[in-house]
């Protein structure tokens, strides 16, 4: 008997050696997680081969795509628009509304209206973010919905390859609250209205019945997973396969009253974004094309549909075998492969049997999948192939043993390499942190103001000098348009600041910046672009310089006033004295009186020359700050602020400087013409043109006002025209006035360049 037993052992020695070796190796590989990704890919393929199902008519999506955002003109949408959207949907009395949009902060206008909608819509479910992001932040729920316990979690579980294959029913928040996910909350709300409630089947309430379905939480090693985080209450995502997806309605259609009648009555409505620019996309097992990635709101809807179909229609959930059963499954297929390889007469026969049995294995697993069971494929298939090849020749045993040692060594090397990479990464993070602190110290101690903002003007960072001078911190200053007062008088300056900062030309510009306590500080700013959508602004406080300039100008004008007073007063005093003396002598001693009159003439000429010199020095402030065209431009901009008249100012030709007295007279003529057109002619449009030709310069002011008949203008009423005429005469120019009642007025002044 013992001899017979030894013969049988020797006869099947290849199988007895191969099965433990191959099956054991695969189990080790599976325990390391090396086969998990392949198993998940195989599961995805079974999902894609599944037949299409009828669309779930119980769910309607209200989507917000790129065209809707373009129609709104902004994102996020205002609270008023969101309130109008929910109110329009409520009119058809849906059973429950899921709002897959974060709204933890007000977006004016309309916050009060939205708050009222929140408090008067008991079947509205909002969202919050529970699982912390890598930066440690979570997004809270809207306050009014949270107070009424009408919130759910928006979190989705992603596998290592970024796909959604598991679904959360509920999880616990940071404050240890139990909260349903959005898809589960909507399904449970819908079923509650039909009298279908969760019925616990064990003391810990981890297993429960819901209608025709029994739910069991997913364990860390279920199916093809190994050591995955099974926190919360997770189930395998057995999403239905719809040919054309859910019934969807665009946001714009709802707002414009184009929602089909009774479309959402007694249904589940989910509101969410599908716009590509908002990056709310998630890959599922069905996703094969990056251009057809479902949005987050669609994933939540798929979970809701899965739960409803399971509870109401008896649609199978996705179950898995226990871990011992899966290990036994691998051993069985390893045994089959070893027997085939050991008993086959040739490698060709072995290969053919492997192919046929592999097809049978995959087909059987797919059949189990269709009835709701996830049977692992990759380890058994590898066991079949590996055992067949191994047992086909016993001589490969040593090679396999060496392979096992090599594999173990590679695993150890990989572990050591990972540990080394972790250490290096920590060192790099520490170095980066030190460099960041050093850079922060440098930026805060640079004696200039620095701000970082994006293309929309949203401020990302300000340094200590900015906060010290202007009072704005990074948390206080949201946008660069907060740096000017919000009033009509500052609209032009506000636009100037925005244009300068967003242009990022690197040139310096003097601007008045508003501080946090509503004061204004004179600053100089230059802005440059760091990246496609990121800009940096560098500013200096020039208040002392401006005060010094103003003080210098004031001192200079005071000096000139004293000079005019001293010179002209002395001249006029001398003239009076000599005239008095001449009056006494004009009859008695005419020859001496004539000498006094000559002195009077000399004093008068001297005073006139000094007066002209002083007047030339006291040019208008508008001309002090630039040339004639700049002065006319500033003059029209000043008048725009006090009138509704449309004013335009343009230059034709290349500019060149004119004598100071000519520029002064042209500016005064333009000022008088603009005032007359607005005040008396009641013009609605005025065009100012400065035409610079090679030999002469023309100033043209044309309006569409009431007009007048030139011959009928009296001397008293035409004082402004008379003043223009005198000024033109003084500079040796030519004045042309064309006007007719009801046809507007055109004034042209022509002066020679020389």
Offer a concise description of the structure.
The chain is of the alpha/beta class and 754 residues long. It contains 22 helices and 26 strands.
Short descriptors:
22 helices, 18% strand, Beta-Lactamase, 48% helix, 5-stranded antiparallel sheet, 754 residues, 26 strands, alpha/beta, 5 domains, elongated, 6-stranded parallel sheet
Question: Can you walk through the features of this model?
Answer:
The protein has 754 residues and is of the alpha/beta class. It has five domains: 2-32 and 321-394; 59-156 and 170-196 and 239-280 and 294-319, no CATH class; 446-541, 2-Layer Sandwich (Beta-Lactamase); 546-617, Up-down Bundle (Single alpha-helices involved in coiled-coils or other helix-helix interfaces), CATH 1.20.5.1930; 621-752, 2-Layer Sandwich (Heat Shock Protein 90). The protein is 48% helix and 18% strand. The protein contains 22 helices and 26 strands. The strands form seven sheets. Strands 4-3-2-13-1-12 form a six-stranded parallel beta sheet. The protein has a five-stranded antiparallel beta sheet with strand order 18-17-21-20-19. Strand 20 (520-531) and strand 21 form a beta hairpin. The longest helix is centred in the middle third of the chain and has 50 residues, at 396-445. The radius of gyration is 44 Å and the shape is elongated.
Number of DSSP strand runs: 26
Spatial separation of the terminal alpha carbons: 134 Å
Structural class: alpha/beta
What is the number of domains?
Answer: 5
Per-chain topology:
Elements: H1 2-11, H2 13-32, H3 36-49, E1 59-64, H4 66-72, H5 79-90, E2 96-99, H6 111-119, E3 124-128, H7 143-147, E4 151-153, E5 163-164, E6 166-172, E7 178-180, H8 182-192, E8 198-200, E9 208-210, E10 213-215, E11 233-236, E12 247-250, H9 251-255, E13 268-273, E14 283-284, H10 296-313, E15 319-320, H11 323-343, H12 347-370, E16 373-374, H13 378-391, H14 396-445, E17 449-454, E18 459-462, H15 464-470, H16 491-503, E19 509-514, E20 520-531, E21 534-541, H17 543-588, H18 590-617, H19 621-624, H20 628-640, E22 646-652, H21 660-679, E23 685-692, E24 696-703, H22 719-730, E25 734-739, E26 745-752
Parallel strand pairs: 1-12, 1-13, 2-3, 2-13, 3-4, 5-14, 15-16, 22-23
Antiparallel strand pairs: 6-7, 6-11, 8-9, 9-10, 17-18, 17-21, 19-20, 20-21, 23-24, 24-26, 25-26
């Amino acid at each position: 008997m013992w001899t017979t037993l030894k013969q049988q052992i020797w006869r099947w020695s290849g199988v007895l050696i191969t099965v433990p070796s191959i099956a054991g190796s695969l189990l080790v590989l599976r325990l390391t997680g090396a086969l998990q990704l392949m198993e998940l890919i195989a599961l995805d393929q079974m999902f894609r081969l599944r037949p299409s199902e009828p669309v779930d008519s119980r769910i309607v999506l209200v989507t917000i795509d790129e065209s809707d955002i373009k129609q709104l003109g902004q994102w996020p949408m205002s609270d008023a628009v969101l309130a109008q959207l929910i109110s329009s949907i409520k009119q058809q009395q849906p059973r429950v509304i899921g709002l897959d949009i974060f709204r933890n902060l007000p977006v004016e206008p309309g916050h009060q209206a939205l708050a009222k909608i929140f408090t008067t819509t008991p079947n509205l479910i909002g969202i919050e973010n529970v699982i912390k992001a890598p930066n440690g932040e979570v997004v809270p729920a809207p306050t009014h919905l949270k107070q009424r316990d009408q919130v759910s979690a928006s979190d989705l579980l992603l596998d290592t390859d970024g796909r959604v294959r598991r679904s959360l029913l509920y999880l616990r928040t940071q404050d240890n609250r139990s909260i349903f996910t959005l898809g589960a909350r909507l399904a449970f709300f819908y079923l509650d209205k039909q009298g279908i409630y969760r019925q616990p089947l064990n003391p810990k309430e981890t297993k429960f019945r819901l209608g025709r379905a029994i739910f069991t939480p997913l364990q860390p090693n279920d199916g093809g997973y190994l050591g995955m985080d099974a926190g919360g209450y997770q189930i395998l995502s057995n999403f239905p396969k719809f040919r054309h997806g859910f019934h969807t309605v665009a946001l714009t259609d709802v707002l414009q009253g184009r929602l089909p009648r009774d479309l959402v009555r007694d249904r589940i409505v989910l509101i969410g974004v599908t716009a590509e620019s908002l990056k709310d996309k998630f890959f599922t097992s069905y996703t094969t094309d990056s251009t057809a990635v479902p949005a987050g709101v669609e994933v939540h809807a798929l979970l809701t549909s899965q739960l409803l179909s399971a509870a109401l229609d008896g649609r199978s959930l996705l179950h898995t075998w226990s871990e011992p059963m899966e290990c036994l499954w691998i051993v069985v297929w390893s045994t089959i492969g070893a027997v085939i390889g050991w008993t086959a007469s040739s490698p060709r026969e072995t290969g053919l049997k492997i192919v046929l049995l592999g097809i049978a294995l995959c087909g059987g697993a797919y059949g189990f999948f269709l009835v709701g069971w996830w049977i692992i494929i990759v380890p058994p298939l590898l066991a079949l192939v590996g055992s067949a090849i191994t047992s086909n020749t016993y001589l490969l045993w040593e090679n396999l043993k060496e392979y096992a040692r090599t594999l173990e060594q590679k695993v150890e090397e990989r572990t050591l390499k990972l540990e080394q990479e972790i250490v290096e990464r920590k060192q790099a993070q520490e170095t980066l942190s030190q460099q960041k602190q050093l850079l922060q110290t440098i930026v805060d101690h640079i004696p200039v103001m620095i701000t970082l903002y994006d293309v929309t003007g949203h401020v990302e960072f300000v340094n200590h000098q900015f906060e010290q001078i202007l009072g704005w911190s990074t948390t206080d200053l949201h946008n660069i348009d907060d740096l000017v007062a919000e009033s009509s008088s500052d609209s032009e300056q506000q636009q100037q600041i925005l244009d300068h900062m967003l242009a990022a030309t690197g040139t310096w510009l003097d601007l008045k910046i508003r501080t946090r306590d509503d004061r204004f500080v004179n600053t100089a700013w230059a802005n440059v672009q760091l990246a496609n959508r990121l800009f940096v602004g560098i500013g200096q406080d020039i208040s002392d310089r401006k005060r010094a300039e103003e003080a210098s100008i004031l001192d200079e004008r005071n000096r000139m006033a004293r000079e005019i007073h001293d010179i002209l007063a002395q001249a006029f005093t001398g003239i009076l004295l000599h005239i008095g003396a001449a009056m006494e002598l004009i009859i008695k001693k005419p020859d001496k009186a004539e000498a006094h009159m000559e002195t009077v003439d000399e004093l008068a000429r001297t005073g006139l020359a000094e007066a002209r010199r002083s007047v030339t020095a006291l040019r208008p402030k508008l001309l002090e700050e630039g040339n004639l065209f700049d002065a006319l431009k500033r003059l029209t901009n000043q008048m725009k602020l006090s009138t509704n008249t449309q004013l335009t100012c343009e230059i034709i030709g290349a500019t060149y400087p004119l004598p100071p007295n000519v520029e002064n007279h042209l500016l005064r003529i333009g000022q008088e013409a603009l005032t007359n057109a607005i005040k008396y002619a009641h013009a609605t449009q005025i065009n100012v043109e400065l035409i610079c030709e090679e030999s002469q310069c023309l100033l043209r002011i044309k309006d569409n006002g009431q007009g007048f008949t030139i011959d009928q203008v009296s001397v008293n009423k035409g004082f402004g025209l008379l003043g223009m005429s005198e000024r033109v005469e003084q500079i040796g120019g030519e004045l042309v006035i064309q006007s007719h009642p009801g046809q507007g007025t055109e004034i042209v002044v022509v002066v020679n360049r020389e």
